[in-house]
């Protein structure tokens, strides 16, 4: 799955997005189209191969599951690379991810979409209050890396500009990750 698509290039495109926008966007970022094109390319390759050698449905589903899970990991990494993020930027993240899901559901039959939950939860966590974020971290830390969680903390608490809160939550992440 890792060699089937241009994950690194897509992460680079995501890293160039300014999530600190003040505008509410109504169109997804260009990387979403690239991700969907990569998935469509894989669909074509699988169709070509299946003309010569039948692909068992379990193998087909496994390939798609691995690729979609990897794409969801790319979303997490890309969103976690945000240094600053406004409410409008969070809405843009949600738009991008939902647009990706809608587009790939046109040609895959795997339900639920593998890896979707952690990305949805990560985006929604941006909207939590500090107290709720602390509980969310305690409940969900095993689904994310410390980099993901610390990025979330830095983006959400920077709006409150309270260094002590940021340090306390970062220390909580460190403590939980040691377990």
Task: Report a brief summary of the structure.
The chain has helices spanning 7-15, 30-52, 57-80, 87-104, 116-125, 130-140, 146-160, 163-178. By secondary structure, it is an all-alpha fold.
General description of the model:
With 179 residues, this protein is mainly α. The protein contains eight helices and no strands. α1 runs parallel beside α3 (57-80) and α7 (146-160) runs antiparallel to α8. The chain is globular, with a radius of gyration of 18 Å. The two termini are 30 Å apart. The model has no long low-confidence stretch (mean pLDDT 89).
Query: Distance between termini?
Result: 30 Å
Q: β content, as a range?
A: under 5%
Can you give the mean pLDDT? Answer: 89
Helix content: over 70%
Number of helices: 8
Largest sheet: none
pLDDT < 50 stretches: none
Q: Got a strand count?
A: 0
**Helix-strand category:** mainly alpha
Spatial extent as radius of gyration: 18 Å
The protein's oligomeric status is: single chain
Task: Describe how the helices and strands are arranged.
Blueprint: H1 7-15, H2 30-52, H3 57-80, H4 87-104, H5 116-125, H6 130-140, H7 146-160, H8 163-178
List keywords for this structure.
mainly alpha; 179 residues; 70% helix; single chain
